[in-house]
Fold this sequence. Notes:
- By secondary structure, the protein is of the alpha+beta class.
- Helices cover 29% and strands 33% of the residues.
- Strands 10-9-11-12-13-14 form a six-stranded mixed sheet, sandwiched between helices. It has a four-stranded mixed sheet with strand order 4-3-6-5, covered by helices on one side. Strands 1-2 form a two-stranded antiparallel sheet.
- The longest helix is centred in the last third of the chain and has 15 residues, at 176-190.
- It is flat.
Amino acid sequence: MNRDIQYNQPIIRYENGKLYETEDSYVTEFPLTLMVNGEEFATVICSPNHIEELVLGFLASEGVILKRSEIKSVDIDDSKGFAYVELTTDISQRMQLSTKRMIASCCGKSREFYFQNDAAIAKTSMSTIEVRPDQILNMMARLQEESRTFHMTGGLHNAAISDGDAFYVHRQDIGRHNALDKLFGYCIQRRISVRDKILIFSGRISSEILIKAAKIGVGMIVSKSAPTTLAIQLAHDLNITAVGFVRDHHFNIYSHPERIHNPS
Length: 264
């Protein structure tokens, strides 16, 4: 069940001293309310595609589910914007961790993060993956090639998960957290191990994004944009290699550079 994530709309453009009629592309903003075991759990503002992946990845990253087998059923009512999830477990005890919260800086008030919950779910990476510099450049070039809707609208975040060579999947969303949750959900659905995988990301590596990578369980995150100081501190602590400013023929390594090496 997927709606269009992009629409064309007649507009008036001003250019070179003139007003004229033309057409522009813009992205869809879609509120999705998650009902878990009959109770309203959260409303996520998202792009309306790959919704079941988003639901699974969001619930896993928030600690609601710990494994795929805890999902009894997922029913998406696309017309009304609801996802109904039935679990095999009672989540009330896990959600007691979610009482202390802060508003994430990179998605406004559409997503909340919980200090205690983050600490309980974020994992220190045990990844042994190693890659060459040319693989990092090639992965970012591939992400740029796959980001066709972004190039038309300028309104989406793009992310992919890779083993260093092949892309397992590319996802896009108006919310950067949502794009990563869709990747996580994809891997959960297909029981793909994420331990020795790499996240390739279009946006800033903030502390919330770094925590999201740790919750997913990858050992490396690669971005075309900048990191923040807190993100780098967390990357050092959680044994995650953070790579930023991947552009043209250069990039910066901010933590755990031992996973990146030139061929001998």
